[in-house]
Amino acid sequence: MMRPMIARFARFAMLLPSVLLANGMAWGCFCVGTPRRACEGFVDSDILFTGRVTRIEPRTDQEITTRVLSMLSPAAGAKLRARKPLTNEEMLDALRKLLPAEAFRALEAKSGAALELDFQGAFSTRAAHIQVLERFHGDVAHEVEIPFGTSSCDFKFQEEREYLIDAFRDQKSGGLRTGSCSGTAEIKDPHQLDMYRNLLSRSAPPTVFGFVTRQPSDLELFYRASKPVAQATITIRSGEQTWRASTDARGEYSLALPAPGSYQVEAGLSELPERQRVLRLDVLPGQCQRVNFSAIPMGSIRGRLLDADGHGVAGELVEIRGVPPTLDPRHISKEYTQADGMFRIPRLISGEYRLLINPGLPPRKRRWMGDRSPYGETFYSGAAPKDQAVTIHLDPGQDLDNLEFRLPPAAPEWRMHGEIQAPDDDLEAVKVWLVEEGWPEDKAVIDGVRVGVDGQFTLVGAQGRSYAIFGHYRDANVHYHSAITPLIPGAQSPIRLVLEAAPANEDCELCRKYQHLDISPDWK
């Protein structure tokens, strides 16, 4: 079973202001304000209900500011009013008062830009308290709370208004989330719910709907066509009966069917192979089914990721890059290799491509999910330098199978033990970093840990690599750092680092050079 990296863009867009794609383009909330059919709510929603917003906390920007100031010390509050940046410790002190203990523990090891982002999000979030009126889809309590305000893609609720709410349950918090890219909308006419009630009772006619697009990744996003194809003919057949519709300016179509049964749906796109333009489906009574089409022939690459001994490598993400003029594919959902190393990259237009794993990463570097790979950046087939990568040519609609992506020998693990000495013995606040110089500074940090009460630490790198190591601690009153100590392959443990005090306002070369330093909660 493959693990989806990002399962559904519509949900992901609710959590971020925009999504940065591989080719540098950003998706904003392109679906904001687009009306949604009742069928879409039943097909695409996890949880669908109507509700009245009874209150919003906090209600205004002034209340948010007051809330922040109430959590800050007088000195930090004065800095905030003067629009001066807060230190990590000042932000953490405020978050400690605001958040439940479990939520705070997930943030307390962060610093810099990552902590500032969480700080702003925690205090700018509003919570809409909603009385549930009518349930259409999914399990929901009588009263719910939905946060909003952290993103431009959030839905903006107002008090004493009634809404049709298309929501999903956040996997981490268990709470409900929604957004502007969902079907959530204010109820302005009670009759707009009639179709939902008919679908719920199965009294509505079965319906097939969808869109035609010139952007294959829209089939993954499924919600709207970013490059719609208008006036495309959609034909539905059952026996001798035929029904037709043409897509509108948004590339969308909808056909109500006379009865449940087996149907064939065909897009009038002769340039596509039959398997991509003709689909067969069974429709149940009162059921809505979405069928989307790409007007661009799509191919795929399927193969196995193998280690140096020919065994399958599981849990790696095989990435794909276009070789100019072929653009990078705009995949939102990505899948890791299976237990036997199998992988598949679908929805590819014709062109030239390169495959790789761990782009821009040294071996054994901790990745954003907290795990680490014994392989650094490696291109198909087994080349570390980009200029030795093998280029794959894909014809329109071609499915390339049985490709073998063989990796070089894995880098063995190197565990480094050491101890820290600090002037005031406040060792728990000290962080130790392992960096591999020569890489971009946002990629160079291989490992990082908080020091234990006894000053001991253990870092992990790859054997045969050259590193540098240093300790660092800074707050509003003190600033400690050690010298950057080089580590050559085979260096012996334990490593001894001595933190020296410096003025709190000193321009820190380490802080400036490694602005991306951060410790994930999973790293502790």
TrEMBL record:
Looking up InterPro entries in the UniProt record yields: Carb-bd-like_fold, CarboxyPept-like_regulatory, TIMP-like_OB-fold
Does the keyword Signal feature in the UniProt annotation? Answer: yes
Organism superkingdom: Bacteria
Q: Which residues constitute the signal peptide according to the record?
A: 1-22
GO MF terms here are: carbohydrate binding
> Mind listing the UniProt keywords for this protein, alphabetically?
Signal
**Protein known as:** Carboxypeptidase regulatory-like domain-containing protein
